[in-house]
Amino acid sequence: MPNTLLIFGGSGFIGQKICQKAIEQGYHVYSISTHGKPSINENWVNHANMTWIASDVVKHDTWQNDIPDSIHYCINLIGILKQTTKQTYVNSIIRPNDIISNWATTKQIAYLFLSAKFGPSDYIKAKKEAESLITSQDNQNTIVYSGLVTDKNHLLKQTQGVVLKLGAKIPVLSHWCKQVYPIDVNHLACAILNVVKSPDKTSKYVDLTQ
């Protein structure tokens, strides 16, 4: 089963678009998330090469029995921007990355982690802790930075994106706005799949905010 992708968080906003683009490009895709299959009515969701697995990677490792041995690339999109008493940065960013990146390193499967350059201080601290582990591992790991992810079908996200683009042109706001410079979800999905197809083995970082 060549070109098989394993995507953690594939049922989310960004994950769905990556799964869709990957299916269109001929990949076999396995998505693992607590929700499993998303409740949207689109043909690609039920494609023969698309497999949805409902699993909480922090609580158990049964997902390892549901995927093939021929995984080509592993993508981790698991994360939250604002934590709650139940969903913390530890159990939604740090622990999933520990588990997944260690598994990928053991299997020597290329691994991609979606990070960020700006956000709530504890959120960025959690992202940096995850990055620290990734950069210490002996594996083909890539850390991708994206800013605000927008979608033309979501008015609020589009409006926020326009505001950030305008702010990036104002000297007093420029530095902050460029850290979260908006990127359309379709462009982000294509950029991540380009990393999968043509990884840069000389660098662990891909900055999409520049």
TrEMBL record:
Q: Which GO terms describe its molecular function?
A: protein-containing complex binding
The record, for Gene3D superfamilies, names: NAD(P)-binding Rossmann-like Domain
| Source organism superkingdom | Bacteria
SUPFAM superfamilies named in the record: NAD(P)-binding Rossmann-fold domains
Fetch the Pfam families from UniProt.
Epimerase
What InterPro entries does the record tag this protein with? ComplexI_NDUFA9_subunit, Epimerase_deHydtase, NAD(P)-bd_dom_sf
**NAD-dependent epimerase/dehydratase domain location:** 6-95
State the protein's name. NAD-dependent epimerase/dehydratase domain-containing protein
Q: Which organism is it from?
A: Vagococcus teuberi
